[in-house]
Amino acid sequence: MKKFLAIFLVLALAMTAMAGCGGGAEEPNGNGEAPEDVTTIGFLYIGPVTDGGYNQAQHMGAMAVQEEFGDSVKVLWAENVAEDLQAVKTNAINMIDNGATIVIGTSFGHMDGLEELANEYPDLTFLHFSGYKMNDTNFGNYFGAMEEARYLSGIVAGLTTETNKLGYIAAYPYTEVLIGINSFFLGAKSVNPDVTMNVVYINSWGDAALEQAAAESLLAQNCDVLTQHADTSAAQVAAEKVGAYAVGYNIDNSKVAPGSFLTAPIWHHEAYLVPVIEKIIAGEYVPESYYGTMADGYIGLAPLTDLVSDEAKAEVERVQAEIIAGNYPIFVGPLKDNAGNVVVPEGEAMTAREDIWAMDYVLEGITAMQ
Amino acid sequence: MEGFLAATVIAGMPLLFATTGEIITEKSGLLNLGVEGLMLMGAIMGFVAGYETGNPWMGLLGAILAGAAGSLIFAFLTITLRANQVVTGLTLTIFGTGFASFMGKSYVGLVVPQTIKDFFVKIHVPLLGDIPFIGPVFFRQDVFVYFGYFLVVLVSLYFYRTKRGLNLKAVGESAASADASGINVMVYKYVHTCIGGALCALGGAYMSLVMMSVWVENVVAGRGWIAVALVIFASWNPIKAFIGAFLFGGLSILGFRLQSMGIHISQYWVDMLPYAATIVIIILSSRKNKKENQPPADLGIAYFREER
């Protein structure tokens, strides 16, 4: 009798141990979970995936991942996930309950929620676009050197403008936006020394009517090439109405405003996501702070439309090759900010990521509120 | 300056329609907080109908029907079923926002047909358009804007010069008294809620069809709420709503106009002004206690005939 009890207890222990091992990553989930060899990935978006801009670009990356891995990956996504802890965690946990082992937040404000989740679910992997937090085991972030593509689109703008005045519609005056403003302007200035630029901040990421009104105010100031760091295509449409030109952002919008659209700096999120997901599935992922470049194929330029002159096309091609080869820094001295302070001395170039991401000024020649 | 004021008129137009619509609704004693949702429903259905048919009238009709249908839901819930108006209105906003996103999925980034663009092209009104200053600001606009001016006159006449307008006021001030005097309270409430909703929807359609002429998600972006504030600002008077709409519209674009002129005022201050102005107006009108500036006495209260 004792023997039986002993065997029973040992068996029970073994079962418990096995169940314990199985927890976490393969957390049993009551409803509609994927088979074991399918990896489920959850994406959190701050807006709708059909916004014609930021979120659509993110979603294109997710869909490219789906296509690349086929049946071995299941992609879940949640739209309009607000930038607060509760919204991030609710949506992410919902995905985890549905079998997700990788959760990717794509907006800056998703960062803190993901950090907490990474602590609570040590067996799952969390990736965050545009943030700076990470840990050593299961939480990494990624972003890209958008200044490279901005610079190239600036070249196009500089060679297209006839009034030598560019207009830039920006969401908020903070580092990422300022880097975009300055690199775009430097690109234009590299081919057109007389160019100046007006920047207006609209304090919103996705208010199409406000972007349009801002575009109209810039057009009224005689700016004939516009670009924007905000989420919709409104500026391109406004430019088309009066026969001016526009450089887009995030995705190729040549069909929305064929009469004004020149090109757009764009994201190729799949260039990072596909290899990193491969690594995560293989269990080889080590958290990192990825900073994609044009050379990686992570940052790109939408195809130049027929509105772009051959001269500009040739120049973009030349500089693009140099940037990809790694011998064309964007921020080369001497550079002054628009208050006249030297920010990059002559003979030096600002290339370190942390230096670029400390930018809190706009350059000389740019009119903007600070 | 003229350019700025002309842009102000355009920025104020969606607000004007939505505010006038909400005033009509509130005059019948119903507080519909679903303006934002109704505007979005109008924006998407106007766009869909306009895009599919290429006919501007069909676009407007689509918006009107969407707004009327949306507010009919509200009317049924609050008038017949006597649901809480605030909660129902908020629900309608959430519903309308989702409805517009859902319907608009396959239309994102599409541009309205040329026939519609041509229809809403800026028209220079003879004589009036030549008046210095006033001409370029008010009378070189598209046909929708002229309809907006006309609407203000029409609604003012209706409110203050017709018997039905007086009846409407009675319904909003005291439904029981109106009922006792033989006015069909239910019909008045239903009809004016639907008309109000249709006007809100037209405000939304102005944004999607004329201003943007491209479908972008959440095109209304909070203007419905500004309209709700404007109703109070205008103290339920369509003429004051006209002034208020352009004032609020102007303030919404003033910030970066100033920026690009080289005058540096934080946009946050400028964004705050309309709401600060609304608060001041509420305080002033409640201090003066003038009867004509007060909300309809029965606003937000469901009418039970049996409780008379």
TL;DR?
The complex is a heterodimer of chains A (370) and B (308). Chain A is an alpha/beta fold and 370 residues long.
Overall description:
The complex is a heterodimer of chains A (370) and B (308). By secondary structure, chain A is an alpha/beta fold. Chain A has two domains: 147 residues, Response regulator (Rossmann fold, 3-Layer(aba) Sandwich), CATH 3.40.50.2300; 185 residues, Response regulator (Rossmann fold), CATH 3.40.50. Chain A is 39% helix and 19% strand. Chain A has a six-stranded parallel beta sheet with strand order 2-1-3-4-5-11, with helices on both faces. Chain B is an all-alpha fold and 308 residues long. Chain B has a single domain, classed as ABC transporter involved in vitamin B12 uptake, BtuC (Orthogonal Bundle). Chain B has 13 helices and no strands. In chain B, helix 7 packs across helix 8 and helix 11 crosses helix 12. Chain B is globular. Chains A and B meet through strand 7 and helix 7 of A and helix 1, helix 10, helix 12 and helix 13 of B.
Characteristic terms for this protein:
heterodimer; A: 370 residues; alpha/beta; Rossmann fold; 6-stranded parallel β-sheet; 5-stranded parallel β-sheet; B: 308 residues; globular
